[in-house]
Amino acid sequence: MSVTIKIKVNEKLYLRDPEQTALGRKIIDNSIQLIDELGFELFTFKKLAKRIGSTEASVYRYFENKHKLLVYLISWYWHWLEYQIDYQTNNIEKPEHKLKIVLKVLSESFKYDPEFSHIDEEVLGKIVVSESAKTYLTKKVETEHQEGFFQAYKNLCNKISKIIKEIKPDYSYPVALVSTIIETAHEQIFFAEHLPTLTEIKVFAGDKSEIVSFLENLVFSVLNMV
Predict the structure, then answer these.
(1) pLDDT of residue 1
(2) Full-prediction pTM beyond 0.90?
(3) Could you tell me the residue ranges of all domains in the chain?
(4) Helix intervals (H) in the chain
(5) In terms of DSSP H, where are the helices of 39-119?
(6) Which pLDDT score is estimated for 115?
(7) Cβ-count burial of 166 within 10 angstroms (0-12 exposed, 13-18 middle, 19+ buried)?
(8) What is the rounded distance in angstroms from the CA atom of residue 110 to the CA atom of residue 125?
């Protein structure tokens, strides 16, 4: 993209801003790759330090624990997704058209964006599908909510809910519908790729068009617009 943007993540998620140093950006880059390779359960700062040729202590200078690192990565993605929605719906007046673009954005696999050379958006998107629920399915979720850990997700949901209200101002559950859409998109992508007997949707070579069609049918049916 030709426009330079800065994504700012909640400062409470890190001890030192990883965007500000070469080592910090290296930690982010390799964390994404390693979580994708191993899964979050097997990912450790010890393994990360070995991968980047540094020490565990250097990683801990940036992040208190791997949970906060995961929340950081997922939050970054939500911010970036919100930017994508703004960018792709700019100058689109019809809300129904906006919503269809949003559903495509929520479902598609993004390609590497050179604007952020230390973040592979495509791989991070895979992590969001498989690991994002782990950021809030914890005993500390209410405390972390108060600290703003999930503000990026809330902002994204609120932005999309406004489009739904444009389409149907009297609809009572726009935010609930949006969060359902996002989680459903992730579940269906995961099922299609790993548990295909739980869905009729197929994903071929990264083609998410069936998921987009399913979400459109679901959302517009709820809004009584099919």
Answers:
(1) 41
(2) yes
(3) 72-222
(4) 22-38, 45-52, 56-60, 66-89, 95-107, 121-131, 141-146, 151-167, 174-194, 209-222
(5) 45-52, 56-60, 66-89, 95-107
(6) 67
(7) middle
(8) 7
- The 10 Å Cβ neighbour count of residue 196 is 12
Among positive and negative, which fits the CA dihedral 15, 17, 22, 26? positive
d(CA 192, CA 186) in angstroms, rounded, equals 10
Write down how long the chain is. Answer: 226
Q: Which of the 8 DSSP states describes residue 207?
A: B
* Eight-class DSSP state of 202: -
Residue 49: which of 38, 40, 57, 41 has the closest Cα?
57
Residue pLDDT tens, the chain, 226 long: 445 577 899 999 999 999 999 999 999 999 999 999 999 999 999 999 999 999 999 999 999 999 999 999 999 999 999 999 999 999 999 999 999 999 999 988 666 566 667 899 999 999 999 999 999 999 999 999 999 999 999 999 999 999 999 999 999 999 999 999 999 999 999 999 999 999 999 988 778 899 999 999 999 999 986 4
Task: Please choose, from the candidates 85, 197, 62, the residue with its C-alpha nearest in 3D space to the C-alpha of residue 152.
Answer: 85
Q: Which two tokens stand for residue 90?
A: 């700019």
Which distant-in-sequence residues (6+ apart) come within 8 Å of 112 by Cβ?
Answer: 120, 121, 122
Count CB-CB contacts under 10 A for residue 197.
6
Residue 88: which residues within 8 A CB-CB, separation 6 or more? 101, 105
